[in-house]
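User: ok so my PI wants both of these folded by tonight, can you help

Assistant: No problem, let's get them done. Here's the first:
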Amino acid sequence: MTLDINAAFDGGNIRLVAVEGEGNDWRCDLEIVRDHQSDFFQWFYFRAAGLRGKRVAFRILNAGDSAYPFGWPGYKTRASTDLDQWRMIDTRYDGGVLGFDWTGQADLAWFAYFAPYTMEMHARLVARIAARAGVTHRQLGETLDGQAIDYFRLGTGEKQVWLYARQHPGESMTEYWMEGALDWLTSPAAAPLLREATVHVVPNMNPDGTRRGHLRTNAAGVNLNREWHAPTAERSPEVLCVLREMDATGVTFAIDVHGDEAIAANFIAGFEGIPSWNSARGDRFTEFGRRLAAHTPDFQTQLGYEKAAPGTANLSMSTNQLAERFGAVSVTLEMPFKDHDANPDPAFGWSAERSRALGVACLEVLTEMIATL
């Protein structure tokens, strides 16, 4: 009887430290691998084989040294036996060790920080959307590993709307959000928005980090959301090619889609500290959040990040850079790795399905507001 651990696949991340077992009771000690040339790590995704009939205690020994250890309390690991349904399982965090148990009814199971969205899934999304009427697809550039930066354009309106996600590749819920948004944008429901706006979409800003199983960085160990003031071909070609296209089109409204490790809620962050901030743009940002909270129980405005003081915005971050550079109403949307506690789901928590639905809700609210932006 053996127990085999493997993460050598698209998006996988784990290192086996030790396996001990006898009869039905086994213990498996693991470590999360750091992002290449970086100290960031938190994303994990691995397969266990030989589980049938075993009770296995999994322990991630270095969880306390991860990028955001304050995100582990209250967190629940996602597990799947079919790579389709990802259910939460009881998880404990004690003494810097993240632990969860599994009793094998089948030989195979997969475990992940959140429901994975692999580069194979990305390729299928791109193929599906690119084939639809009214969609223009382009490759804006290449990553350091030679992967494509895929881009879609829809609509003919004057307002320039930009949607982009997965600057931080471990935030896989963001590409599920993009699935929902793109399916809606290619449906008849989007016609009013597409008359008023041209919508530009980059569903995955960081393909290299996605494939490598990184939490936060690209192939060079660079956090792309600290590159928007001065991207380079050597460090951040992903940002460089997207920002060049933004310079060509302008930006009226933008959503940068992210995931947050600690806060058990969906929320938005803005651009309050930029040099050119004014109350008119601030009011439109606030109104978007207010309407979204009224539109869906899966959004709220009470929890979130502290606002930057006047003149202190970090212009290397995309939301601040786009607001300052283009005069845009620029939004960072954050989704949880935990659950949306104001509207919880005890089986799945915050999930792929709910991420897709929030993508639709955001665009429905944007449609209501587009004439005022």
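One down. Here's the second:
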Amino acid sequence: MAGTFYGIGVGPGDPELLTMKAVNTIRKVDVLIAPKTEKKDGSVAYNIAKPYLRDDVEIVYQVFPMVKHFEESTEAWEANMKEILGFLEAGKNVGFLTLGDAMFFSTYIYVFRLLEKKGVNIETIPGIPAFIAIGSHLGWPIVEGNDVLSIIPATADKETIEKVMSVSDNVVLMKVYKNFPEIADLLVENKMIDNAVMVSRVGMPDEERIDDILARKDQPVNYLSTVLARRTPEK
């Protein structure tokens, strides 16, 4: 009998933020896939899940290239899928660890789509996204009343970001590491800079909170950084 493939959201960084279902799933799988990029050693998701691993679980690191258009660079993804299929066909249950939530800006989504086409039995375990953890951690209401909240990937083109910010009361800006100076300027233009905060690596030992975003405008930003901002009310 073929095994089951589990996508497991491990949350933003604090191992205590995993759901009970995520922990129970991690403890019952035979193989755990720990995704990583070509540029980094180890896996952040693996480190978060590490306290809950069985001694006999098999850890498999898979490299997933960071590409803008997934469909244009599928060779590595296909190879990883075949490796996963091999485990499943051998009757092993396989877990795939992913930061935050499995269906929210995650590498898992692409793997899910590939395996779904193969008729694999799949179960996805939700996790806490970074911006939700940041809001609770800082006592920062993310959205309330009739406010309009927009979640914006900062990797989108500038025109799209400008349009969305212009009609939003509150914004969550993800992936700000690539064009942080431009994002800082847009927060100023949209009267959000006075009510903005950026947190890097939330829930991890080296977590950092940045309240004066303009002062950090020209400095490098960690990959795992998220900005929460709200529009300053008109006087």
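Residues 15 and 49 are 6 Å apart (CA to CA). Strands lie at 5-9, 31-36, 58-63, 94-98, 122-125, 149-153, 170-174, 196-200, 208-210, 225-230. Good luck tonight!
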